[in-house]
């Protein structure tokens, strides 16, 4: 038997994300990053002083926010992406058990059952989707100032600014979680993860 034949059974990769799904994630992350960075340069005084062309930063921020939903809408053409949206929108008994374990700080693997996505990922996805729509709506009210009364624009500015700060905190937590799980990052980078990781972190997932 050849060495190549002996090595074949050692392949333990399992497909987690399609190319389209990875494209949606990367493009959305890029646009969200542009929104966060430009917002920081517009609102943090120490950074605002570094900007020579504030009007350009404003325009980049506005257009990045305007096209932010486009990658997700384009991703709907992918069957794999639509299937994963179905997984993210389905909250089962095992998800409630996962949340109870987190609240009790129970770190045992058997107490945190998860399918392809755990309950925390589902809540994050729903929250960031809703927050993005609110940011888009309030941003449009701030952009087209002549179409709405001043009380609407004032309220939209208040919601937009404070929600932006909350999004920044949540995104920092999301990035921190990703940095702590190299295998999860590998899955988003290459589309595949090890079967061992899948069994350990997502035991209910039938990949």
Structure notes:
The protein has helices at residues 3-7, 19-43, 45-48, 54-66, 70-75, 79-88, 93-103, 119-143, 150-179, 182-190, 195-201, and strands at residues 13-15, 192-194. By secondary structure, it is mainly α. A two-stranded antiparallel sheet has the order 1-2. The longest helix is centred in the C-terminal third of the chain and has 30 residues, at 150-179. The model is unreliable at 1-11 (pLDDT under 50).
Brief account:
The protein is mainly α and 207 residues long. It is built from eleven helices and two strands, in the order αβαααααααααβα.
Q: How is the biggest beta sheet arranged?
A: 2 strands, antiparallel
**Order of H and E elements:** HEHHHHHHHHHEH
Structural class: mainly alpha
Number of strands: 2
Individual helix count: 11
- Uncertain residue ranges: 1-11
The proportion of residues forming helix, as a percent range, comes to: over 70%
Q: How much of the polypeptide forms β-strand, as a percent range?
A: under 5%
Shape: elongated
What's the gyration radius in Å?
21 Å
Main sheet strand line-up: 1-2
């Amino acid at each position: 038997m050849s060495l190549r034949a002996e090595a074949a059974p050692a392949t333990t990769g399992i497909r987690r994300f399609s190319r389209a799904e990875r494209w949606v994630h990367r493009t959305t992350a890029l646009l969200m990053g542009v929104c966060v960075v430009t917002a920081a340069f517009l609102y943090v005084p120490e950074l605002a002083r570094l900007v020579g062309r504030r009007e350009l930063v404003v325009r980049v921020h506005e257009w990045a926010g305007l096209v932010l939903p486009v990658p997700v809408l384009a991703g709907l053409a992918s069957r794999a992406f639509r299937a994963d949206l179905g997984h993210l929108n389905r909250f089962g008994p095992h998800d409630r058990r996962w949340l109870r374990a987190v609240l009790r700080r129970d770190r045992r693997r058997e107490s945190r059952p998860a399918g392809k996505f755990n309950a925390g990922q589902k809540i994050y996805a729903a929250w960031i989707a809703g927050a993005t729509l609110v940011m888009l709506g309030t941003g449009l009210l701030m952009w087209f100032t002549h179409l709405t009364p001043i009380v609407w624009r004032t309220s939209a500015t208040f919601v937009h600014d404070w929600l932006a700060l909350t999004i920044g905190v949540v995104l920092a937590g999301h990035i921190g979680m990703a940095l702590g799980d190299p295998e999860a990052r590998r899955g988003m980078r290459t589309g595949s993860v090890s079967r061992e990781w899948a069994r350990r972190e997502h035991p209910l997932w039938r990949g």
